[in-house]
């Protein structure tokens, strides 16, 4: 066993003949390379942090400035002519420096040059931050024949001048991003009232106006002052409270309720070998981690000019959620050279590096095949151990403190929590068939919750590999938003399908070039009391997953291309289709959530867009009214899409509604004051919760050349007991994927029926525009 081999790597014995030292040169060689890798990594991180800290200037510009100053000063002293760029500052410094020439001149020139460079750097940095405060570009009309305003053109020119000369790293823009602005209280109140108007009758709306008025003139002013102070003091007035109170303080299961999932590129099936697919995906994931660690991953740029905040990438790997009695915490480890593999009820520690080098895909495939060939049986309770992470958080925290705080259980749990990520080698097969849509539904359910015990739901993400080579992931939500995992997953699929590839027989490319460190079984000592705790959590998880009603709908009649030909935003178009579908399904309008992002600001995460507007409800009613002409319907749709797009833009620019109200509510709880308005607003259920899965975040993914490489996206569980969770991805020009979830226990929801309503709504919208085109 590898543990035994490591244990005798170094030993000594004392006899009457003296001290005898025994050591294993191979193991000590591995230890040496591990240390060297760690030193290099820390040094590289330090250098990269310095480079990011001086952006948009560069270290080379500092060297040029210092060298230029010294050259010009020495030239002036040698030939008695030239310009003193310091305007006498160097001569002044020389009076206070007690060194001999030429060292005195070099030191004073260097100090003077550094001062000039530092001043220029600070001017550039804060000029860039001021420029990024401008959001007028967001509201400019786009498309053919539409011109930019003079102010936006000048802004673009200034941004390009400041950023053109230095290649940015992943975190280069962090110091230049502005803080999230705090909206005025009256503006948020006005937006809120407008958002709920289509949801309330006149009597309830008048009542709500009274609550808003009382809040705005009363306790709201005090809460706003405290929040204003927090917005000045912290980098982002929302993010820390959002992470703590929305995610970490929740005591209900994170499986289904919080975790989300992603799926394979279902139109391609590059290999049916489970070990080969797992190896390629694992190798690609570690390549992505290397890009993040070295800050070589290019930051995402909106419109190619404005950076999105990158701070969430830091916790993608080597991260786990630790349960607590009252609140959980996120723990991120600086490095990890292993993953944990779950297969057939057993956990394995699988090394992925040897002598400081990442194993190639073929070497990783050999590791996975070793695990697949292992016929050992699980320890008592081991097979269902992951159910602890799927059940209620408090019982898991109590079990962790009681049964995993020492000995072999502590060591094995620490191995899982310190792993880069978890790979699950499934024993079941899942696939896609256009003739049997239920296959895709079952695949989605496997990704969302599995069997309730065969994932480690606390890890930042689990890669799931089916027996026939299909893949997906399950992601924990507190450490980052779905866009970060989508970026990683898109990169992994691109590397797997395009860059790395497979041999003709389905095996990985490459050869085994080293003596592989074998995977090792994790051992557990789970007593009867611990097994009861595991079984209790499993029953909670099983009841939760059995209540999930999930439908994956692939829409191929048309896609983004047709929507743009109608001169409408594709996202707004889809949201209007969802409004029409929901009205037909429920017979009424309801509070609708669409996730937007605030990553244009430092440490930004998400904001809520409210797609159910006065304009969208007017269009929906027109679609259901046979007396309204198609011309009028199309006009109302354009108005509704325009209003939705403005709401989305406002949310991205920090002028949303719900995060502001959420933070005011948190402050009211800290101050122990009661607000009827906030209590009512924060208790309103989101019966239609939606989110678009982003794609196109990697430059390697060219869908025009590889149209089948697109992932089917991912999804999440329902937010309300009597509502729907809808995730969608606008996949290329002609395809849409919808992931519709609800609860079987609800008598008013049916995911399959709602998917059919989405299909009908999209068809009616296309027919609307096609009928106008014929006239």
UniProtKB/TrEMBL annotation:
It catalyses: (R)-carnitine + hexadecanoyl-CoA = O-hexadecanoyl-(R)-carnitine + CoA. Pathway: Lipid metabolism; fatty acid beta-oxidation. The chain crosses the membrane at residues 114-134, 154-173. It is found in: Membrane; Mitochondrion membrane. Residues 180-759 form the Choline/carnitine acyltransferase domain. The keyword Transport applies. The active site is at 477 (proton acceptor). One of its GO terms (cellular component) is mitochondrial membrane. Residues 1-46 form the Carnitine O-palmitoyltransferase N-terminal domain. Pfam families: Carn_acyltransf, CPT_N. GO terms for biological process: carnitine metabolic process; fatty acid metabolic process. Its EC number is 2.3.1.21. It is an enzyme of class 2 (transferase). Keywords: Acyltransferase, Fatty acid metabolism, Lipid metabolism, Membrane, Mitochondrion, Transferase, Transmembrane, Transmembrane helix, Transport. GO terms for molecular function: carnitine O-palmitoyltransferase activity. The keyword Transport applies. It is a multi-pass membrane protein. Belongs to the carnitine/choline acetyltransferase family. This is carnitine O-palmitoyltransferase. It comes from Petrolisthes manimaculis.
């Amino acid at each position: 066993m590898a543990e035994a081999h490591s244990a005798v790597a170094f030993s000594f014995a004392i006899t009457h003949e003296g001290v005898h030292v025994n050591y294993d040169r191979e193991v000590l060689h591995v230890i040496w390379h591990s240390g060297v890798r760690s030193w290099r990594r820390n040094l590289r991180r330090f250098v990269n942090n310095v480079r990011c800290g001086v952006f948009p200037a560069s270290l080379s510009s500092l060297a040029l400035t210092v060298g230029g100053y010294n050259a010009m000063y020495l030239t002036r002293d040698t030939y008695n002519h030239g310009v003193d760029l310091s305007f006498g500052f160097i001569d002044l410094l020389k009076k206070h420096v007690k060194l001999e020439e030429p060292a005195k001149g070099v030191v004073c020139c260097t100090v003077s040059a550094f001062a000039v460079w530092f001043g220029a750097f600070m001017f550039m940095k804060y000029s860039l931050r001021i420029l990024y405060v401008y959001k007028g570009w967001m509201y400019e009309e786009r498309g053919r024949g539409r011109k930019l305003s003079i102010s936006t053109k000048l802004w673009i020119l200034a941004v390009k001048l400041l950023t053109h000369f230095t290649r940015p790293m992943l975190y280069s823009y962090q110091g230049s991003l502005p803080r999230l602005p705090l909206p005025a209280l009256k503006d948020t109140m006005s937006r809120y009232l407008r958002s709920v108007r289509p949801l309330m009758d006149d009597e309830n709306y008048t009542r709500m106006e009274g609550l808003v008025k009382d809040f705005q003139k009363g306790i709201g002013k005090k809460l706003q002052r405290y929040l204003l102070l927090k917005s000045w003091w912290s980098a982002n007035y929302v993010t820390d409270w959002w992470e703590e109170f929305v995610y970490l303080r929740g005591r209900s299961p994170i499986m289904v309720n919080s975790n989300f999932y992603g799926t394979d590129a279902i139109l391609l099936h590059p290999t049916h070998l489970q070990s080969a697919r797992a190896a390629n995906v694992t190798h690609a994931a570690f390549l992505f981690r290397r890009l993040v660690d070295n800050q070589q991953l290019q930051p995402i740029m909106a419109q190619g000019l404005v950076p999105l905040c990158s701070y969430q990438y830091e916790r993608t790997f080597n991260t786990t959620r630790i349960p607590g009695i009252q609140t959980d915490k996120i723990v991120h480890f600086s490095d990890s050279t292993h993953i944990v593999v779950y297969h057939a009820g057993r956990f394995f520690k699988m090394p992925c590096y040897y002598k400081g080098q990442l194993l190639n895909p073929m070497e990783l495939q050999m590791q996975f095949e070793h695990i697949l060939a292992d016929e050992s049986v699980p320890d008592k309770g081991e097979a269902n151990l992951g159910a602890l992470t799927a059940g209620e958080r408090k019982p898991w925290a109590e079990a962790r403190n009681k049964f995993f705080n020492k000995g072999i259980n502590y060591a094995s749990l620490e191995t899982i929590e310190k792993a880069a990520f978890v790979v699950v080698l499934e024993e079941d097969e899942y696939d896609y068939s256009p003739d049997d849509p239920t296959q895709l539904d079952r695949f989605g359910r496997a990704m969302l919750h599995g069997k309730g015990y065969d994932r480690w739901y606390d890890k930042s993400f689990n890669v799931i590999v089916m027996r026939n080579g299909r893949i997906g992931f399950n992601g924990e939500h507190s450490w980052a938003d779905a866009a970060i995992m989508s970026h990683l997953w898109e990169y992994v699929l691109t590397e797997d399908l395009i860059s790395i590839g497979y041999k003709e027989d389905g095996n990985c490319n490459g050869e085994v070039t080293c003596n592989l460190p074998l995977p090792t079984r994790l051992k557990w000592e789970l007593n009867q009391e611990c097994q009861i705790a595991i079984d209790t959590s499993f029953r909670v998880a099983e009841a939760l997953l059995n209540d999930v009603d999930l439908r994956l709908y692939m829409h191929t009649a048309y896609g983004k291309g047709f929507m743009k030909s109608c001169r409408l935003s594709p996202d707004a178009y889809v949201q209007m289709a969802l409004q029409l579908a929901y009205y037909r399904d429920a017979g009424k309008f309801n509070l609708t959530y669409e996730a937007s992002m605030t990553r244009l600001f430092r440490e930004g995460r998400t904001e809520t867009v409210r797609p159910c507007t006065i304009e969208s409800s007017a269009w929906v009613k027109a679609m259901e009214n046979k007396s309204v002409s198609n011309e009028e319907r199309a006009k109302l749709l354009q108005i509704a899409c325009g209003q939705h797009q403005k709401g989305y833009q406002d949310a991205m620019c920090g002028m949303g509604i719900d995060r502001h109200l959420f933070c005011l509510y948190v402050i009211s709880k800290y101050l122990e004051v009661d607000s009827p308005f906030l209590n009512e607003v924060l208790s309103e259920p989101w019966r239609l919760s939606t989110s678009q899965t982003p794609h196109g975040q990697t430059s390697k993914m060219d869908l025009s050349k590889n149209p089948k490489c697109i992932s089917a996206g991912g999804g999440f569980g329902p937010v309300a007991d009597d509502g729907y969770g809808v995730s969608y991805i606008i996949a290329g020009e002609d395809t849409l994927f919808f992931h519709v979830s609800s609860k079987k226990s609800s008598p008013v929801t049916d995911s399959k029926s709602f998917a059919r309503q989405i299909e009908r709504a999209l068809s009616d919208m296309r027919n609307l525009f096609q009928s106008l085109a014929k006239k």
